Amino acid sequence: MFRAVFLQKSDTAVLSEVRELSEDRLPEGDVLVAVDYSTINYKDGLAITGRFPVVRQWPMVPGIDLAGTVESSANPRFKPGDKVLINGYGLGDAHWGGLAQKARVKSEWLIPVPSPFSTLNAMAIGTAGYTAMLCVLALEQHGVRPDRGPVLVTGAAGGVGTIAIAVLAKLGFDVTASTGRLEEAAFLQKLGASQVIDRATLASAGEMLGEEKWAGAIDTVGSATLANVCAATRYRGTVTACGLAQGLDFPTSVLPFILRNITLCGIDSVMAPYELRAEAWQRLARDLDVKKLDAVTQVLGLDQAIATANDVLSGKVRGRAVIDVNR
Ligand code: NDP
């Protein structure tokens, strides 16, 4: 038997509870993982509360990522004792996920935890940090370098935002952080932001084209904010869009694209190709100061996962909420 967060759907709501389950209920897969840690990402918040229909199969064990130790493997690439992690691939929405002491998964989803990270480090980074690195890689691919000018990070005090700031600062970028929690300004500056701005300045419909401010941006909130970020991006700058914390609409015009030649890059972590994932994790191992992770991480027990899902959706969690599934 093992403990897991278990989601069931009724006619009107999603029922979430922590339950004991037997191993024979685990889905198909060629590797059995003893999970050490999972996390509560924004998408887990949506799944656990049922606020948005992200779950595609019922019943479901949520948790879009996990890190742990291989217990048994039918694939010779992995052996018992190997430290591994998974992000996405439908974990927690189409295949039972990481908020459980055991997971049976496909070996092609597994990434070895890169040195110097522990399984706790890997989940302190989690899908949010890995997505932040996918954004950084996309900016680099489009020629955004520190000498091109300042870079903006929206949703700065969230999971993607905090890791993005830490990585960009280490790479030498001048980082502006946009947050609704100005009381976190000192924390964001300690992570590496040189400027902190109030997200309210970007939140409502603005001009189609504004003053050129940023050479690049990592946007985690979408909606009017993303439109305003595009309108204030410098000539030939690049904006990466990975999130929808403000909304999934995008009320913009073509002007930033046809007059300023800006690029808008969509970022998806769930089905990203394996080579790109491996590159992102290698770059995190190189470009993220592990000491900064402690400042952005809180470690909670499995029984706290459901309440934390609500906190994540209310924007009350600073940085990363890691769940120790064995606590
Ligand atoms: P978090 O909940 O940790 O952070 C989101 C942040 O967005 C909050 O901390 C807050 O930052 C800001 N925010 C919340 N509500 C609003 C609002 N109404 N208007 C403007 N800003 C708001 O989430 P993550 O960092 O883990 O994820 C960020 C986004 O990226 C989510 O939408 C998530 O679904 C998405 N995502 C997408 C992935 C992909 O593959 N494309 C992968 C991972 C995440 P502050 O308090 O600083 O203002």
String of helices and strands = EEEHEEEEHEHEHEHEHEHEHHEHE
Low-confidence stretches: none
Largest sheet, described in full? 7 strands, mixed
* Number of strand segments: 15
- Specify the overall morphology: globular
Explain what the structure shows.
With 327 residues, the chain is α/β, with parallel strands linked by helices. It has ten helices and 15 strands. The strands form three sheets. Strands 3, 4, 5, 6, 7, 14 and 15 form a seven-stranded mixed beta sheet that branches. The protein has a six-stranded parallel beta sheet with strand order 10-9-8-11-12-13, with helices on both faces. Strands 1-2 form a two-stranded antiparallel ribbon. Strand 8 (151-154), helix 3 and strand 9 form a beta-alpha-beta unit. Helix 1 (42-49) packs across helix 10 (305-313), helix 2 crosses helix 3 and helix 2 crosses helix 8. It starts with a strand and ends with a strand. The mean pLDDT is 96. NADPH dihydro-nicotinamide-adenine-dinucleotide phosphate is lined by residues 41-43, 127-128, 131, 155-161, 179-181, 199, 203, 220-221, 225, 242-246, 267-270, 312, 315, 317. NADPH dihydro-nicotinamide-adenine-dinucleotide phosphate binds next to helix 1, helix 2 and helix 3.
